[in-house]
Amino acid sequence: xxxxxxxxxxxxxxxxxxxxxxxxxxxxxxxxxxxxxxxxxxxxxxxxxxxxxxxxxxxxxxxxxxxxxxxxxxxxxxxxxxxxxxxxxxxxxxxxxxxxxxxxxxxxxxxxxxxxxxxxxxxxxxxxxxxxxxxxxxxxxxxxxxxxxxxxxxxxxxxxxxxxxxxxxxxxxxxxxxxxxxxxxxxxxxxxxxxxxxxxxxxxxxxxxxxxxxxxxxxxxxxxxxxxxxxxxxxxxxxxxxxxxxxxxxxxxxxxxxxxxxxxxxxxxxxxxxxxxxxxxxxx
Amino acid sequence: xxxxxxxxxxxxxxxxxxxxxxxxxxxxxxxxxxxxxxxxxxxxxxxxxxxxxxxxxxxxxxxxxxxxxxxxxxxxxxxxxxxxxxxxxxxxxxxxxxxxxxxxxxxxxxxxxxxxxxxxxxxxxxxxxxxxxxxxxxxxxxxxxxxxxxxxxxxxxxxxxxxxxxxxxx
Lengths: 284, 170
What we know:
The structure holds two protein chains of two kinds.
Chain A: E1 6-8, H1 13-23, E2 27-30, H2 36-41, E3 49-52, E4 62-65, E5 68-72, H3 77-81, H4 84-89, H5 91-98, H6 103-108, H7 111-117, H8 124-130, E6 134-138, E7 143-147, H9 148-151, E8 152-154, E9 157-158, E10 165-172, E11 178-185, E12 193-202, E13 204-213, E14 220-221, H10 223-229, H11 234-239, H12 241-252, H13 262-281
Parallel strand pairs in A: 1-3, 2-3
Antiparallel strand pairs in A: 4-5, 5-10, 6-7, 6-10, 8-9, 11-12, 12-13, 13-14
Helix pairs in contact in A: 10-12, 12-13
Chain B: E1 14-20, E2 23-29, H1 35-42, E3 61-64, E4 67-70, E5 83-85, H2 98-105, H3 115-128, H4 134-141, H5 151-169
Parallel strand pairs in B: 1-5
Antiparallel strand pairs in B: 1-2, 3-4, 3-5
Helix pairs in contact in B: 2-5
């Protein structure tokens, strides 16, 4: 059962930011509602006002701008799963989105809502870290770009200010010779572990980004693992995978919970890192 | 986090005009009212079921503009200007939909609690993809749980209906 609240329906980002400024913590942005309404029904959070942002113009667009893929924060998982642009330029994101929750959640839930809610067992954040994505936050009169790796502060906590609205996700188009993979594993509705790798391949590995999520409070990049892969031949890097997996496991800050014990999750991180690497280099 | 909640005198009412099983419906809802409660308790259509209440099981599946939603986690005002289909609206003039016929013919249910959601989700699948592979079917229907675990018969039912519906279209 939901408690009674009021609904605000702003028509611009500016108006939304003003409402957030005026009502502070008693109000919350509402888009797809797939995370927020569950928490409200459980009584874990309650708000006097929800601010419905689905009427905002221009935030549901998905487009290519020079070498950047621009994803409006209101794009649904289903929109991303079926987008021709992404199928061509970023199939790893299509595969991730295709496997988010279930079809009903994918029709309703938005990428922006998923990121802002910062539920630890969410998929997209981890891949966005590996892709070097930037998140655009807007206020009434200003706009800033936040690197994805700075966005997630803790479980259910982002670096957004109280009156900031996430409007767009910007992803650099991967270089022609890239290997990108996101793998997850879990036995409940949400994943226990998620792991993403993005490699630039030039015969060897000219650049590597590794990110791990779901196991701990927030998705994290793993610079230590990246250093073990970057600048190496594929053979050399392959020999470092066990160590890279251990580095990723340490960085994940895995916790023991219903989704598995800390040890178990750390083991799975190592396994997923090897598999994601193998899948990435096979794309050369 | 305890804050005083709004008193009833502050209640906000939103006019909602929508199509329910092909008929125009005009009601007023408060922002917090869930589509599931409005359809079951206010409009009297009890085919849609509350089960897990967290968008996992699919028993509360309704089609909104042809796409499956979890009515348990959809705010009722969201159907403004849209078209809602419940299991009660699937048969036409007393004739069952091919999916309903196939579920009967192939024993696609046991206790029947998941069936309205199963059939509506299957209808959305076949509208989008009239000739699904078994893998595509399983992927689409992954979010509809049969607690009796009668999945084999459900898959057979949907596949049989797909063949029949393709035949009807040709």
